């Protein structure tokens, strides 16, 4: 009887400990408990009958201002928190840096709306107009590269230079990735775990996994413990559909602003990769080829390639990337 009692107590303590661990790791879907490197401000917006807000950082230069601004567009699985070293380097070089969390991401609202790159671009223009910024360099990473491309196409007069860091959308995914509905993708998003995030990051994003990359996994997985995670998952599915249905790769030749591509050559990112066979995965998402092909499509574009680097050069090889970035500015 005593052994049974002790077993139950021990099991209860294990369950309690696990629950406490999960509670510690739990993040709200607007990342209130994720520390960003600089103060957050909000731009109020109204769309489809909803009042929403767009979070952003507005960071002043730490040295003599050069009168120029750089705007940073994050990737689909990230928010403004992963730009810390880029912001520091740019502000140390006299730039004002604007870092929005796009609607549906990071600390911004997660509304159920029709997501489109056109709409996101227009909200970023409104942010610039509100801040009195006439022209900006746009640096877009991953999905942010698709958005930055759309922004430059819509607002060339606002875009001083277009910088694309391992942008997705260099291929038209809907031509080879099987279609899944937003609802089907939502069911997939609901199954997200820390292990599934880590496995994807290891296979697609980095050439060599390092302990410091766990912080990225912690954010992506931490929200799954939130009671509001179904909302996050639904929005993630909606933005997956946006990427799938709204390619920019057919319009690269229409870009009219100076453009530089920064390409980690070992990147193998494919949106919808899990829907492909290994043989199909080997054919697509090969940035060592896609980078050059895209640079050839954009008038007068330059390309800077990084060996032994995957999807996120500014994190995997920060020194090399930041030297190339400042040199391009």
TrEMBL record:
Q: Note the InterPro entries from the entry.
A: AB_hydrolase_1 (IPR000073), AB_hydrolase_fold (IPR029058), AB_hydrolase_sf (IPR050266), Epox_hydrolase-like (IPR000639)
GO MF terms listed in the record are: catalytic activity
Q: Which residue intervals define the domain AB hydrolase-1 in the entry?
A: 69-316
Signal sequence, start to end: 1-21
Question: Does the keyword field hold GTP-binding?
Answer: no
Q: Which GO terms describe its cellular component?
A: membrane
What is the designated name of this protein?
Pimeloyl-ACP methyl ester carboxylesterase
What is the scientific name of the source organism? Answer: Pedobacter rhizosphaerae
